[in-house]
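Task card 7
Instruction: Convert sequence to structure tokens.
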Amino acid sequence: MRILQSKEVMRAERVAFTYFGESEPVLQPCSFCINSGSVVLLAGGNGSGKTTLLKLMAGAMQSHEGQQQGELSCGMVQDGQALIRGFILQEAKEQFVIGTVEDELAFAPENLGLLREVIHSRVEEQLDKADLRQLRLRQVQQLSGGEQQRTAVASVLTMEPDVLLIDDAWSQMDKESRLRLSEQLQAWHSQGRTIVLAVSRLDELSDEWQHGWIQDAQLLLLHNGRMVYDGKMPEYPVRDGLNGLSRPKDELRCLELCYEAGIMPPKWEGNAETAAMSMQVPAIVKQGNAEEDAAVRAECAGGKCSRIGEEEVILHLSKVSYRYHPIARRDQKRQQTEDALHNVTFQLKAGRCMLLTGKNGSGKSTLFRLITGGLSKRSGSMEGEWWIAGQLGQKLRSFEVARLIGFTAQQPESGFFAASVQEELRDALHAANQCGRLRIEGQSAQGQAVYTHEQVEREVEYRLQQYCLWDVKHLHPHDMPTGLKRLLSLAIASAHEPEVIMLDEPTASLDAVHASFVRDWCLRQAEQGRALIVATHDRMWEEVEHPRLMHASMDRGSLHINL
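Output:
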């Protein structure tokens, strides 16, 4: 093993990795070093190899997963012991091992053999810093996505690791939780500890980049499995001409590489120096005649869209409340005194996209599960009524709900069953075709209720390309990067032309280009007359103004329409 310099905590020399079963390496040979007490941003788009590299850095890659080349060395602490590396996974649920929030936080320090008093002190400290005290006895599977991520972060910080590696583990946190985590990481770094953050979008760190503690961070930029940049973070590219300063060529080149890698928003408003850096968003849906498409957008921009017709009420909830039954006896008091949903009433019309925001645990995911039939009668009790497409929701059977609603969950892999991405999409399109609900633009079913097998197969290939899945079509869906799982889930949810599409955190873990893809896809669906509900914490939506977009928020189970 190579001896590191005194200030180094990690050094990589021509490190590459190839997963078993793949002919090409997902990570090309890369070399870099990380100094003690530094902040490192490991940035790259979906599928760039950053999660693979982070797992190698954390020592979490298993020998049966693939073959590593090159050498990756880690330093020692002063007493000659190996550095403690804390690894926070992108998907929080993959990190949990015990059951309750409190037990998860105690698990790691218990395995380090720490004294009971030390473990108790660390658990109590992290419960406060992560705002988890009210959830300490809650089963982790009953938490919202953001609450699970807060628990995952806290469960690693109780180890007090020397090097903290975080894989985009804040993608489902609300604004307050992200700010709290940022302040906590800044305090952690001020104690001389090393932090490595894997990120898919630099715009999500705009506050820290512009005014905060990552201004002087080291940037390791991956693109298509290659490390294309290793250096200091460039100055934040504000919208009014890059601060009015003439940038050094190396900074301009770094920003250009960030755009090419897809980790910066495609439509960044800069001056002439940055005009060439804009990226074209991938095609969202099949494009017809350009003039015809522009006419549709012009109609919608004026508040009218002839393609939509009468604004029919597609989804209607009337005074809906929901209360979970107690699961853990220690949590029984809380479960019996609070409603997860309280008197929720609203109407969603065809051609409208409801943007649903709210703090973690405010009831958004519960609302989605109730409407989509994801809550069993044993889970809790409901009051009120809801209708979809004029039918009483409580009376619908599961297959009838599935026909009317397209749904993408926070953990999209829960809906994948085939052996490859291509088979997953093929099954969805053929099933929709057999039910007479598949629509292939520009083609007719030749007088039949369904399309031919050949027509469907061509559409499978087309949609693999449309949803940016062509290069991963051979992979098992569970082996894809998290961001690409969301794109596959989106393609499946819309395959059968449902009356309502419900998307729970659809842009979480997506890079800037793919997040823009999903945003524009949602707006186009609304323009074409479909009703959508999008639950999100993504600030990207704050800049969107569209006549078909309506805003709503949830707070402690109550829903409020923002007029």
